[in-house]
From TrEMBL:
Listed name of the protein: Uncharacterized protein
Domain of life (superkingdom): Bacteria
UniProt source species: Proteiniborus ethanoligenes
């Protein structure tokens, strides 16, 4: 698909398209570490500390709302024509050891 011209579904000529990114992540949390031991004593709960997020799978595509056709599309880091803040932060976090999602 050419992002330099208006996007139209090549199958049904529909103009209502959605950009989608499906991703599966594995989150790891450290339970009852020396750092969180005091929290457990104070609150009587099991504290846990975020350790890692690993991406297991990823699928990016544009989908036509009219005929439900899917067209592969990359929202990767080198795409300078798309400016979606949440996507940019999520993609960047996949390539750094300690991602921050605070704003």
């Amino acid at each position: 698909m050419d992002v330099n011209s208006p996007l139209i579904c090549p199958k049904c000529q529909g103009k209502y398209l959605e950009m989608k990114r499906e991703a599966t992540y594995l989150y790891t949390y450290k339970i009852d570490t020396p750092l969180t031991e005091d929290w457990s004593k104070e609150n009587g709960v099991w504290p846990f500390l975020f350790d890692n997020r690993e991406q297991l799978s990823n699928e990016e595509y544009i989908q036509c709302e009219g005929c439900s056709s899917k067209f592969p599309f990359s929202l990767g880091t080198d795409n300078t024509k798309i400016h979606l803040t949440i996507i940019q932060k999520a993609i960047r976090s996949d390539f750094i050891k300690e991602p921050e999602f605070w704003g």
